[in-house]
Specification:
The chain has one domain (9-198). The protein is globular and about 45 Å long. The protein is of the alpha+beta class. The chain has helices spanning 9-13, 79-83, 141-148, 154-158, 170-177, 184-191, and strands at 17-24, 33-41, 52-58, 69-76, 89-91, 98-100, 117-123, 126-128, 135-139. The chain has six helices and nine strands; from the N terminus they run αββββαβββββαααα. InterPro entries: SH3_domain_YSC84-like (IPR051702), Ysc84_actin-binding (IPR007461).
Length: 202
């Protein structure tokens, strides 16, 4: 059973993609929020694509009093939501496609309630139902080129064309998030590192 207040395993298991990023802002309700992250897509065989890098610029942030640094997971529930990350720049909240996702302890998820994008934010170690509004995602083509080679596009990455970078521990983290067995040594190393939400400054 999913622990109350946590991101449900079934949400990740049914996702078409995941966008994971860290952001920061100067003060409450001020513009100028920024950050960076990666997006992965579900491949035909059920595995995950390598991560495509992006930057974050946001003009607003739901009700999040006193949060200067935060982490966010966007669960992409449709192929269209995944494809938005291949256009170079996209607005997460466009057309009302985004909503706070269900958390542990809530009733079983009804397909009628599934939004194209569910968002989960984390501050001080607790997941909650905050929504990120006005978030603009921009592909970091330079970072992708450095990781996968010149002229490698986000579309190619999310189709699984290049190989996973050998230095990332993300594959094991994704396995764990779906409730699958993962390398305990890798997860142990990850668990000892502070998340951006635990840091006082970037």
């Amino acid at each position: 059973m999913t622990e109350k207040g946590r991101l449900p395993v079934e949400v990740i298991a049914n996702a078409k993609g995941l966008a994971i990023f860290s952001g920061f802002r100067a003060a409450m309700y001020l513009a100028g929020t920024g950050g960076s992250g990666v997006v992965v897509a579900r491949l035909a065989d059920g595995s995950w694509s390598p991560p495509s890098a992006f930057s974050v610029v946001s003009g607003g942030f739901g009700v999040a009093y006193g949060v200067d640094v935060y982490d966010c997971v966007c669960v992409l529930n449709t192929q269209e939501a995944v494809d938005a990350y291949t256009t170079g720049e996209t607005n997460l909240g466009a057309g009302g496609t985004m909503a706070a996702g269900p958390i542990g302890g809530t009733p079983r998820i009804n397909n009628k309630d599934v939004k194209p994008v569910w968002t989960y934010t984390k501050s001080r170690g607790i997941y909650g139902g905050l929504t990120v509004d006005g978030t603009i995602i921009k592909e970091r083509s330079g970072v992708n080129a450095e990781a996968y080679g010149p002229n490698t596009t986000a579309a190619q990455i999310l189709k699984g064309e290049p190989k996973w970078p050998t230095t990332t521990q993300l594959p094991e983290v994704l396995k764990m998030s779906e409730g699958k067995s993962a390398d305990a040594k890798v997860l142990g190393a990850v668990s000892t590192e502070p998340t951006p939400g635990d840091l006082k400054e970037l």
